[in-house]
């Protein structure tokens, strides 16, 4: 899965046609002729220079001065990461087949890169719904890989997963987009406080230790994604009552 990432150190010159940047390769192999994504924009890698001499390529851990085409070069910022893409974008089937092999977390594309690609496909309303749903399933898998690779807590992982699942439910409805009740149950199971306990802490949250403030903020971030699922819960369902109880508290959390 030949995906390369370049991190921008500086933009040395730029005009409407492109510019020259000092970059570091984070992974993969950078070669002349590759196309890189900067958000929705595309940049062409046209020339590589290392130690004052032209080079055909450079790999992870090395820096180079590169010529990139595209007016967006002038808008690049220090630390920004550019991801190589085929001219027509990464093939969904190729990514699905690669992921099905259970590749190690260090393989390309890295979990955070895979998540970005998958979420971008999931949210691309120019694609057929069936294709966007497949990208959504990749985004769910990528969220798990990110949590494992980055050592994220269950709460942080839950926020990432709830975001993807709630988006799919909101866009495609229950069934194709997922199970609203399962989303709510999974989210609430990650919260180690009752609504009353969270409300009590929120009354004077500025006086709390930093770690408790962060914890309350994570709970609030998690709860925001249950909103898309709530309309699909059956009236009288105890789960709906629990979601409503937390909804009344969420706005008071820091």
Task: Offer a quick outline of the entry.
By secondary structure, the chain is of the alpha+beta class. It has eight helices and nine strands. A six-stranded antiparallel beta barrel has the order 1-2-8-5-4-9.
> What structural category characterises the helix and strand content?
alpha+beta
Sheet with most strands: strand arrangement: 1-2-8-5-4-9
The proportion of residues forming helix, as a percent range, comes to: 40-55%
Largest β-sheet summary: 6 strands, antiparallel, barrel
Mean pLDDT: 89
The number of strands is 9
**Low-confidence sequence ranges:** none
Word description of this protein:
It is a single chain. Helix content is 42%, strand content 22%. The chain has a 6-stranded antiparallel beta barrel. Strands 3-7 form a two-stranded antiparallel sheet. It has 254 residues and is an alpha+beta fold. The model has no long low-confidence stretch (mean pLDDT 89). A hairpin with a 2-residue loop joins strand 4 (35-38) and strand 5. The chain contains 8 helices and 9 strands.
Question: Which short descriptors sum up this protein?
Answer:
single chain; 254 residues; alpha+beta; six-stranded antiparallel β-barrel; two-stranded antiparallel sheet; 8 helices; 9 strands; 22% strand; elongated
């Amino acid at each position: 899965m030949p995906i390369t990432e370049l991190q921008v150190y500086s933009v040395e010159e730029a005009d409407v046609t492109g510019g020259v940047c000092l970059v570091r390769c984070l992974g993969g192999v950078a070669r002349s002729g590759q196309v890189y994504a900067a958000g929705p924009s595309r940049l062409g890698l046209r020339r590589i220079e290392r130690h004052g001499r032209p080079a055909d390529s450079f790999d992870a851990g090395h820096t180079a001065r590169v010529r990139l085409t595209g007016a967006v070069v002038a808008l690049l910022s220090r630390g920004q990461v550019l991801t190589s893409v085929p001219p027509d974008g990464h093939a969904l089937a190729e990514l699905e087949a690669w992921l099905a092999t259970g590749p190690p977390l260090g393989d390309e594309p890295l979990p955070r890169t895979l998540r970005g690609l998958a979420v971008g496909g999931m949210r691309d309303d120019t694609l057929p719904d069936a294709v966007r749903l497949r990208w959504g399933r990749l985004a769910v898998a990528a969220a798990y890989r990110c949590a494992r690779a980055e050592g994220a807590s269950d709460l942080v992982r839950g926020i990432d997963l709830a975001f993807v699942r709630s988006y799919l439910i909101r866009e495609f409805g229950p069934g194709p987009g997922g199970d609203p009740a399962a989303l709510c149950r999974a989210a609430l199971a990650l919260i180690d406080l009752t609504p009353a306990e969270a409300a009590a802490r929120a009354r004077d949250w500025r006086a709390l230790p930093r770690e408790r403030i962060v914890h309350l903020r994570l709970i609030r971030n998690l709860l925001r994604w249950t909103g898309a699922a709530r309309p699909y819960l059956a009236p009288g369902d105890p789960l709906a009552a629990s979601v409503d109880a937390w909804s009344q508290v969420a706005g008071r959390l820091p």
